[in-house]
Write a structure and sequence with these properties.
The protein has about 800 residues and is mainly beta. It is built from 3 helices and 65 strands. Among the domains are: about 60-380, Methylamine Dehydrogenase, Chain H (7 Propeller); about 705-805, Sandwich (Immunoglobulin-like). It has a 7-stranded antiparallel sheet, with no helix packed on it. Strands 29, 30, 31, 32 and 33 form a 5-stranded antiparallel sheet that branches. The radius of gyration is 35 Å and the shape is elongated. Residues about 1-40 have low confidence and may be disordered. This is FlgD/Vpr Ig-like domain-containing protein.
Length: about 800
């Protein structure tokens, strides 16, 4: 076995990667999946749901000195809730405005509603077709406006209402300033355009003094004018500036305009005291995604960006930075790492915005000018993060892997080590695998989206997915994230697994070095691939089965439907030896799904059907079969969800069913996984990412070696491989694993601790005894011992021989 110590050897994937898992367990104060006294009190553990990566949507639509107008993402994240007024430090109050299913708050009423703060803490609510309401949020008084016939709402600014009517050509571009005086509504026609006309959708922004108006000349030239609300006159201030997708914001000292049209990256800023003077241009920068959005405080221009997510881009953003740019020039300041794109100018000074460092730091904040003239932040109200979404999970030898669709910027896999026993605990959660943030394309970005991770029992995790070409592949992950990709290719013909909706690849079974992945085995054209992860030269497909019938692997045995109707057969993947059962399936039906754990083989002829007796469990030791409910096989039990009764049940094989938990209707069909290399069950309710882990209460099978790779001979003088290597795949974890080497006389020449990881053990020895000398050439007996980590059953004992040459006798 000369190649075992070359670069990229198998152990670099398993042993090296699992050092991370061992460290992970240590960080959580755990040893590999201890289940001491588990069966007496069936211990359990609850793991809280992780937070969603994306902060809760909480756009701000207006702000007064004492509160903000906002909307918050609803519970199921499908829309934004109703507009509400949230006083600083107070309880939110719903506003009488409709709740569209997007982030529309168009100033011309395009979304059906428009809510703004006009002055002080007075909120203007326009809700078509019911009209306009001004509500003083401090006093509680309400003023209702009925717009004159033919008038179109364009906004409320202080005590003024701006409307438009149609001209002789039918264009809604004639402006009116309405005001309530002595209980009467006065109507003043806007003047000063001097032959120029206001564009439809002309209101770009304003405050209680002025409104920015986009206007056009009949020759097609455009500009932005300043409407003085007190005089109802418009003065051109930014000739040539467009109103297409433009925004204009006002502070006491400045107004700022920006439009992205034509690739523009520059904002134009005017002093309000001298609007006729030349503008100051502030470069917003061409870097970064999204469209700049503006705010003003003191002598600073605030900017963040609004993202437009493309259809095939699934990267989740937390919001662009909130940056303050000195209007007179100078170094910018980053105020928040991330911010929502809506900013609200506060009448009298300041800006309100929602943002923070992450979803856990999200809050409504006010930006004002500090005593030193620089921008200062104040938190008004924290916005709690939402619970993340769990799509699949795996529990193998205490190694819990979760597939999470939204707890980071792209769907990813996370891992932690679980300990039950007297003091159940979960180790620190860490990232196992995630696409890079620069990854593009739906296939690559969604590599782990709703894909089922399966543990192999030796610390590795396998996932069936697709590559950039859409071809089915098996992704193999060590605990340190090292990734190997195995294509679904027939080794005999080179034919790839078919693609399309009829062929969805998934890991069907895994045990140590052997994995089955591919189709479900229910169709005549289905293909299932058997992979050897530790094959010479690297992981590869060993064989392919096409047609109906499931496959399952345990140790070196590959189980499949037998050649005789109603039978099963097992092929030893190392020796090729085949053994068959007597007919055991219901009416000779063909098992479309198989599961194998220890001495148990579960078969199901109708996994997607309603036939209640087309499934059962076969005991390979007693060669008997018994009924078990349709579900997931564990070591000596089957766990199944009873949809009619809304409960998760566990049935010890040959014994009565007991209920793990009864659910309400909203928690139908949980995600459930049985630890095939231990005695635990992990599950999560369908609409919750909270995970519960419980001991099955069923005694596990005695620990056994189910597969091994042990050097039979070693040349201690070899220049390439002078070390004895041994790896054992066990049926469950052990502690205090040791290897003892004895000579022909039975005398111990060496003993040492073996490395434990998941349900596997590894050992290396350089042939030197305790005094530093090499052993004498000859054949030695080795013995592996260990204590079952769950305290159930006899101690582990495995033996064999190894021949050494190049030792003491030849040196």
């Amino acid at each position: 076995m000369a190649g075992r110590h070359k670069p990229n050897r198998r152990r670099s994937l398993v042993r090296g990667g699992l050092a991370a898992a061992v460290a992970l367990a240590a960080a959580g104060g755990t040893l590999p999946f201890l289940l001491s006294n588990a069966h007496a009190d069936t211990p359990s553990l609850t793991i809280p749901a992780p937070d969603r990566f994306k902060p809760v949507a909480n756009p701000v639509y207006g702000a007064g000195p004492g509160g903000v107008v906002e909307r918050t993402e609803v519970k199921d994240a499908s829309a934004l809730g109703y507009y509400r007024w949230t006083p600083d430090g107070g309880t939110p109050v719903d506003l009488p405005a409709s709740s569209p299913y997007d982030d529309i708050n168009s100033i011309d009423g395009g979304g059906g509603s428009h809510v703004s703060v006009t002055s002080g803490d007075v909120v203007a609510i326009y809700d078509r077709p019911t009209g306009l309401v001004l509500k003083d949020m401090k006093s509680g008084t309400t003023t209702k406006y009925t717009l004159p016939d033919g008038h179109f709402y364009r906004g409320v600014f202080g005590s003024y209402v701006l409307t438009a009517t149609r001209d002789a050509d039918g264009n809604a571009d004639v402006l009116h300033v309405l005001r309530m005086a002595d209980g009467q509504l006065t109507d003043t026609l806007v003047t000063g355009l001097n032959g120029w006309v206001a564009e439809d959708g002309m209101t770009l922004g304003g405050d209680d003094r002025s409104v920015a108006i986009w206007y056009a000349h009949p020759d097609g030239t455009h500009g932005v004018g300043l409407l003085d609300l007190a005089t109802a006159e418009v003065t051109p201030v930014l000739p040539g500036a467009t109103g297409e997708n433009a925004q204009v914001v006002f502070s006491d000292g400045y107004l700022a305009w920006y439009s992205p049209e034509g690739g523009n990256t520059t904002a134009r800023v005017l002093r309000r005291a001298t609007p006729e003077a030349a503008d100051t241009k502030v470069e917003l920068g061409s870097g970064g995604e999204g469209t700049p959005r503006l705010g003003l405080i003191g002598d600073w221009l605030l900017t963040t960006r609004q993202y437009e997510q493309s259809e095939n881009d699934f990267l989740v953003r937390q919001g662009a930075p909130l940056t303050a740019l000195p209007i007179a020039g100078g170094e910018p300041k980053t105020l928040l790492e991330h911010a929502g794109w809506r900013m609200a100018q506060v009448p009298g000074g300041g800006v309100a915005v929602t943002g923070g460092a992450s979803a856990q730091d999200w809050a409504v904040r006010r930006v004002s000018v500090g005593d030193d003239g620089a921008p200062a932040l104040r938190t008004v109200r924290e916005v709690a993060p939402k619970e993340g979404n769990l799509s699949r999970l795996s529990l193998t030898a205490g190694h819990l892997v979760t597939a999470e669709s939204d707890t980071t910027y792209l769907p990813a896999l996370f891992q932690r080590q679980i300990t039950l026993g007297a003091a159940p605990s979960a180790g620190e959660r860490s990232l196992l695998a995630r696409p890079d943030a620069q990854t593009t394309g739906e296939t690559a970005q969604r590599l782990y989206d709703h894909r089922r991770p399966v543990g192999t029992g030796d610390g590795r995790t396998v996932v069936a997915s697709t590559d950039a070409n859409g071809d089915q592949v098996l992704v193999v992950l060590a605990a340190d994230g090292t990734k190997t990709v195995v294509p679904a290719v027939d080794p005999q013909t080179g034919e790839k697994m078919p693609t399309g909706s009829d062929h969805y690849s998934e890991v069907r079974s895994a045990s140590g070095r052997y994995v089955v992945f591919g189709d479900s085995g229910r169709g005549l054209d289905d293909r299932q691939y058997v992979v050897d992860l530790d094959a010479s030269g690297g992981a590869k497909v060993l064989r392919v089965r096409q047609g109906q019938g499931g496959l399952a692997v345990w140790g070196t045995k590959l189980w499949m439907p037998g050649d005789t109707e109603g039978t099963l057969q097992a092929v030893d993947l190392k020796s090729g030896e085949t053994t068959a059962t007597d007919p055991i399936t219901y009416n000779g039906c063909l098992p479309q799904q198989l599961q194998a754990v220890g001495p148990w083989v579960y078969w199901d002829c109708y996994p997607s059907g309603s036939i209640s007796d087309g499934h059962g469990v076969y005991n390979t030791q007693t060669q008997q079969w018994s009924y078990a409910p349709r579900g997931t096989l564990g070591d000596g039990y089957v766990v199944a969800y009873d949809g009619d009764r809304g409960r998760l049940d566990l049935t010890p094989i040959g014994d009565a069913t007991r209920t793990i938990e009864a659910f309400t209707f909203q928690y139908a069909y949980p995600i459930v996984e049985a630890d095939r290399f231990g005695g635990a069950v992990a599950y999560a309710k369908e609409k919750s990412a909270e995970i519960k882990v419980v001991d099955s209460g069923v005694p596990t099978s005695p620990v056994a070696e189910i597969e091994s790779r042990v050097d039979k001979s070693v040349d201690l003088k070899s220049a390439t491989d002078s070390v004895w290597d041994a790896d054992w795949q066990l049926s469950k974890p052990v502690t205090d694993a040791r290897v003892t080497v004895r000579n022909k006389a039975g005398r111990t020449v060496f003993t040492g601790a073996a490395e434990e990881y998941a349900a596997a053990v590894s050992f290396s020895w350089n042939g030197r005894t305790g005094d530093g000398r090499y052993v004498i050439d000859g054949t030695y007996t080795w013995e592996l011992t260990g204590t079952p980590a769950d305290g159930s059953g006899d101690a582990l004992k495995a033996t064999g021989t190894v021949a050494f040459t190049g030792g003491q006798g030849t040196r």
